[in-house]
Design goal:
8 helices, globular, 159 residues
């Protein structure tokens, strides 16, 4: 690692203070296991320290971190041989209202490809074009995944 790529301790602390909650929520929603989430977040931090480019704005930095987190979660899911167990009762305390619990259960049951775009769009406030850049998908693929994810949630919630 060259001297130019090293991040200062203050930069790392700023990243942790600014984005740690968002990255934890994202990874937890995709993985559902706090131990796997910790592993993924450590990997994201290491990649930030070693490989992060110079960002032109906070939005690019946030998008880069979300993309790395999403990719690390996919890698974790791909290579884990065991099925992870999630105690959803632990995260109920984080929800703002009890009526959101059913939505959380249904969202957690969706495939990861739908959860990712739904999370980025509805919870993090990204537009379709931005989600396409973050995930590496086309805008049409993002729209279709949003549609299918909403349809699946609607079907599950009306039953």
């Amino acid at each position: 690692m060259t001297r130019a790529n090293k991040k200062s301790e203050s930069e790392i602390n700023r990243i942790l203070q600014t984005y740690s909650d968002m990255l934890y929520r994202t990874a937890y929603l995709l993985l559902g296991n706090p131990h796997d989430v910790q592993d993924v977040l450590q990997e994201v931090l290491l990649r930030y320290m070693e490989k992060a480019p110079v960002f032109t704005s906070c939005d690019y930095e946030k998008a880069w971190l979300l993309r790395v987190t999403s990719n690390c979660c996919k890698d974790c899911l791909r290579f884990r041989k065991r099925r992870s167990y999630t105690n959803l009762e632990q995260i109920q305390e984080c929800l703002p209202a009890p009526e959101d619990r059913q939505l959380l259960y249904e969202l957690y049951a969706l495939p990861a490809k739908w959860k990712t775009v739904l999370l980025l769009h509805y919870f993090e406030g990204y537009q379709i074009r931005e989600i396409a850049k973050i995930t590496g998908l086309s805008e049409n693929a993002v729209k279709k995944r949003l549609q299918r994810g909403r349809d699946a949630l609607k079907l599950d919630l009306t039953q």
